[in-house]
Fold this sequence. Notes:
3-stranded parallel sheet; 17% helix; 5-stranded mixed sheet; 2 domains; 6 helices; Jelly Rolls
Amino acid sequence: YDSVTVYGDLSWQNQLNYKNKHFFDLCDGIFMNYGWKGNFAEQSAGVAGERKFDVYMGIDVFGRGTFGGGQWTTNVALDVIKKANVSAAIFAPGWVYETQQPPNFQTAQDRWWGLVEKSWGILQFYPRALPFYSNFDQGRGYHICNEGKQVSAIHWNNISSQSLQPLLENRDGSVAQPIIVSIDFSETSYNGGGNLIFVGSLDDGAEYSTRLFLGDLLVGKTPIHFKYSVKANANSRLGMALEFSSPAGESLPVLVAAPGNTSSTMNQFSNKYARVLMPHRVSKHEDESEWLVQETSLDMPGHVLRQIKAVCYN
């Protein structure tokens, strides 16, 4: 940490320079103090040379003397750090929770990390290998369920049970969305303690889609088997849109539709997707009839699965 200089003084440099580089040369990396200025990241990269990614420019999300002000302008500092081609150390992102940012923690949390995505993009894509599974569990909750049946009603916290999280899109709040998507812990889950919940209404014939996962999965010669569980109102449908790229680089969207009127579904979506698949198996659990488990298979040899979206329609 950028604190003591080679002269033995407590003197934050807020950048990598001759006063602290000796320590940097003898360790894996350095966490720069938060009070750096606009050109300090670039200057630190020059001093670090080939080890520029071992320089972590500190950002205090609370905004205490940090470049750009932190909080809802954390991306200002991230933009500068990315341009300088060094690393970032984000300190205290718990600011969102500790200061009770509106309208609620989950929505504010998604919005804040959306700033990070907007600035730096997404570097890790999932799925990249099969099997791929997510129950949207965040390692905490107010109940635990197994295949739609509640087995515990206690509050719990166990980060080791966290599942891969969806990359929910942080849409511009100035435009009203017909469907609000978030992680929910109050409704009974299918597995674990969390759900992905879709709340809102759509006009007849309308649809709403949102990104869940970005993928980099090369499909082999054997079919891919898809299985997902849904609990919905009687007039609500939720399917999955799978975006593939062909060996020639063409985009091929495929809709895995919800069960229902096949002819109506085909009429609504056949001109929007290269293929529309109806589930070949739909099952209910006797002790939890609200949950539908939908299954289907797909042959796409040589294609790459790039994206998984949820599609809401009625």
